C-alpha cells in the first residue's frame, strides 16, 4: 500500500475500534426496569453500529484503493519535524504553566513557540508581542465581561 | 400583515443604539475573520460563546448573526486579492476574482462581490422573513417521530453535501454523534462514557470540539504542510467601483445567485459551497462572452458571491423554525440558544417573538452596515492580510486557549482540546469534512431525545417511524439521499 492508503486504512481501523469501544462501554450502562424498552443503551448501540459499518466501508476502500483514485500527497514541509516539535513545546508549556503562572505568561510561552514553529527567528520580539496580546485579552475579558481567564502569579498583584 | 407588524417591532428594538453597536461589532469582527484565511464564523462564534453568560440573548444573537454575515463578505476579499479563499464558500470567487485582480480590476471585483452580497443577502432575508412564519405553522404539527425523521434527513444530507465522499462525511457525523453521547443521560440521569471523570458529566463542550477542529487542527496542518505562505496580496488599485458595463453584467447574476443560494440554505441540505459552484456553472453557460471565463469574467464573481450570501439567510430558516442546524455555524448558534435555556423551533416564535424578530431585523441592518464597511474601508481589511503568519497562528492558539479554558478553568478541557486538534489534523489531511462532527455533536443528543419520546408514546413500537406518513416520507428521502449518489457513482 502507498503511504496515503496506509493512513486511510489506519483511520478506518481507528473508527472500527472506537465503535467497538462504544459498544463495549454501552453494555456497562445500568438500565432501570422502567426504561427496559427504550433506555439509555439503544442510541449508543445504534451509533456504534453506524460508526463500525462506515469504518468497514472505509477500510475496504483504502485496502482496494487504486493509485489513480487517491489524491496527490500534500507537499511535505521540509521543516515539518521541527515545526511539530515547537508546536508540541508550545501546547505542552501552555497546559503545564496555565494553572501555576496564569493565562498571560502561559499564553506568552505558547505564542512564542508557535511563532517559532511557523518560521519566526526572533523569539524575544515574538514573546513581547504574545505578552502584550495576552495581557490585553486578560484585562479585556476581566473588565468588559467580568471573566477571569486565570491570573496565576498575578492574582496577588 | 402579522409578519410585517412583528418585523416592525423587531426593527424598533434592533435600532436601539446598544443593539446597533452589537450589530456593528458583529459585522466588523465577522469581516475581519472572513478576511483571514483559515478562520471562519463557526470558530469565532464558538470562541465568543462565553459572552452568553454576561449579555442578554438578543444582543448575543445580533452579534453572532453579524459575524455569520460578515464572514461571507470578508471571505471574498481574500479570494480576490490573495487567491486563497478566506472561507470555503468563497472558493469559486477566487477563480474569476483573482484573475480580475491580476488585470488591475480588483476594485470592480470587490465592488461586484460586495454589492452582490448585499443584494442577495437582502433578498435572502426578505424570503426568510416571509417563509419562516409559514414553516412555523407547519412545524407546530410535528411530533417527536417527525422531528426524529427530520434530523435523520439532515444528518444524511449534511454528510453527503459537505466533503467529497459520502462515507467520510458519515464517518465524521458518527464521530460527532459519538462525542455527543458523553455525559449524563437526560432522561434517566445515568452517566454515560464519562470514564469516571467528573469533568465529562456535563458532556463535551461544543467550544472545545469546534476550536480543536478548526483552530488547533488547522494550525497543525498548516505548520506541517503549509511550508509558509508564498502568495502575495495584490493591490486594490484605482477608484473603487464598477463601470456601467460592470453593472449591466452583474445585476442578473446577482439575482440568479440569490435564487440558487437561498433554497440550498433553506432545505435541510446545508452548506454554502454547492450553490456557489452551481451559480458559477450557470453564469458560465448564460454569459454572452463565455470565452472570458477563466480570464476574469465579472459574472463569475457576481453570481457565486450572491449565492453564498443568500444561502446564509436560507440556513437560518430551518435553524430558527425547526431548531435544525445545517452548517457548523448554525450548530454552534443552536448551542448558544441552549445556553440561554431557549430551544429554537416553532415555539421560539410564539414564546420569544421579540428575540426572533429583532434578530431578523438586525440582519437587514447588518447587511447595510456591511456594504458600508466593505466598500470604502477595504484598505483596512487588506492590511489584516499582512499580519505575518507566525503571529497570526500564535494568536489563534492563544484565542483557542481562551475558548477551551476561559470558562471552565480546567486543564482537562485543554488536553481534550489538543486531542481533538490532533483528530482535526488527521481529518484535514485525509479529507474528512469537519462540519458534520459539530452537527452530530449538537444534533445527536436532540435526535436521541426525540427518538425515545416517540418510542415512549408508541409504547416501544418502532413502526411508529414508518406508519406516520410525514415521518415515513422524511425517512424515505433520507434513504434516497444515501442510495442515489452511490448508484450514480457506480456507473
Order of neighbouring strands in the sheet with most strands of chain B:
1-2
Derived from helix and strand composition plus strand pairing, the structural class of chain A reads mainly alpha
**Average pLDDT over all residues of chain B:** 86
**Residues in helices of chain B, as a percent range:** over 70%
TL;DR of this structure?
The complex is a heterodimer of chains A (157) and B (491). By secondary structure, chain A is an all-alpha fold. Chain A has helices at 3-26, 42-64, 80-101, 103-117, 123-145.
Could you explain how this protein is built, in words?
- The complex is a heterodimer of chains A (157) and B (491).
- By secondary structure, chain A is an all-alpha fold.
- Chain A is 68% helix and 0% strand.
- Chain A has helices spanning 3-26, 42-64, 80-101, 103-117, 123-145.
- In chain A, helix 3 (80-101) runs antiparallel to helix 4 (103-117).
- Chain A starts with a helix and ends in a 12-residue tail after the last helix.
- Chain B has one domain.
- Chain B is 73% helix and 1% strand.
- Chain B has 21 helices and 2 strands.
- Chain B has helices at 2-14, 17-35, 41-48, 57-82, 91-102, 106-139, 144-161, 166-181, 206-226, 244-266, 273-286, 299-322, 328-339, 346-351, 353-374, 378-384, 389-405, 411-429, 435-457, 464-467, 469-490; strands spanning 183-184, 191-192.
- Chain B has a two-stranded antiparallel sheet with strand order 1-2.
- In chain B, helix 7 (144-161) runs antiparallel to helix 19 (435-457) and helix 13 (328-339) packs across helix 19 (435-457).
- Chain B is globular, with a radius of gyration of 22 Å.
- The mean pLDDT of chain B is 86.
- The chains are: A mainly alpha (157), B mainly alpha (491).
- The interface between A and B is large, with 72 and 63 residues.
Element layout with pairings:
The complex is a heterodimer of chains A (157) and B (491).
Chain A: H1 3-26, H2 42-64, H3 80-101, H4 103-117, H5 123-145
Helix pairs in contact in A: 1-2, 3-4, 4-5
Chain B: H1 2-14, H2 17-35, H3 41-48, H4 57-82, H5 91-102, H6 106-139, H7 144-161, H8 166-181, E1 183-184, E2 191-192, H9 206-226, H10 244-266, H11 273-286, H12 299-322, H13 328-339, H14 346-351, H15 353-374, H16 378-384, H17 389-405, H18 411-429, H19 435-457, H20 464-467, H21 469-490
Antiparallel strand pairs in B: 1-2
Helix pairs in contact in B: 1-15, 2-4, 2-15, 3-4, 3-9, 3-13, 4-5, 4-6, 4-12, 4-13, 4-15, 5-6, 5-12, 6-10, 6-12, 6-15, 7-8, 7-19, 7-21, 8-19, 9-17, 9-18, 10-11, 10-12, 11-12, 13-19, 17-18
